[in-house]
Design a protein that fits this description.
Length: about 400
Amino acid sequence: MVSVDEASRLIQEHLFRPGIEKVKIDEAEARVLAESVKADRDFPPFDRVAMDGIAINFQAVEEGWEGFRVEGLQQAGQSRLTLKDDKNCIEVMTGAMLPIGTDTVVRYEDVTVVNDMAKLKVKPTARGVNVHHRAQDAKRGDVILLPGTVLSPGETALLASVGWLECTVYGYPRTAIVSTGNELVDIHDRPLPHQIRRSNIYALKSALHTLGCVADLHHLPDDQNKMERDLEKFLRKYDVIVLSGGVSKGKFDFVPAALKALGVKTVFHQVSQKPGKPMFFGTTEKQLIFGLPGNPVSSFVCFYRYIRPWLLKNMGIVPDPEFGVLAAPIDLKNPDLAHFLQVKLKNENGRRMAYPVPGGGSGDFANLREVDAFLEIPQGHGPCSAEQVFPLIPFRTMI
Ligand code: AMP
Ligand code: MG
């Protein structure tokens, strides 16, 4: 049996070289950029008017002028006008080029315009106000996105602004998620009284999908020969196999033996944690095999504690550790194990409070509706008092 930290370290020692692939930028959400992106022009590409109003030469204000005759109108999308008389002004709209001969914009709110005469209500405080200067944000050729950047809407805007239709992102391993168990039927089948639907492979597939990773689903009955035959096929086809169930001590938990018979090396079997103690991890020369306990909450926790960080690390991403404040005291019956406590998160004055959710055994998937995260109480803790801070594993997808 290994500790949680040991299990995590052993898994992270087995990284794969992610391939790369091109994706359209509007399908690149949550993917990880595998190339640098450079500005194809200055950001912004010209001195850009930042407010609707009038453009003037600040010198005139310094000389005491307060009224300006309106010479013309500079619209966004129009080529650049020139101010002919530097005691005059040009009306300008947000996003327009700043007219030649002007350097400062006064907002409409600070000026009255009557019959082509603009009169200042409020004097501009400095030359250049309300102008977004050329190259202020980035220069042409500057790297604006680095490999390893997770693409979210802000990055998509940058890709679009430099005219990229596609970008290169890291690929994922060919992944299979495999349920095991004679009691399981597929979700479109009607379960008999002694059967249940195989829900947790769908949860795992969905969790992978939030990272942009697709996976095939399979099922194996509790029959060692059949298991070996099918697993042999999967080992030819996939880089990563995530199995659910069949790794505990029951009479029909054949997964470790079947994998062993196929030459899979056991890296660890059993982790001192609750839930998820029976977890298995093995390797061949090229593949990784995660054997998660079948209890829905166990497989869920194990995915977020081990598989997700492992996948991200392959692409060079090590998320900052997150923490939560235990909001109510708890007493843990088995201090020899690390505990993943089901918690509801509440932000109280900027503090991330973690309220333990009652119930929530390893098989109680319904309970997860109420839960936002797991609070990781390390091994060695019996009673824990409110206000203690522990590592947190949030799993809700942000929408
Ligand atoms: P096992 O780890 O195979 O002993 O399974 C432990 C418990 O998890 C059993 O009650 C199983 O019925 C349940 N279980 C196993 N696999 C799944 C699955 N894919 N979906 C939902 N429950 C499962
Ligand atoms: Mg089973």
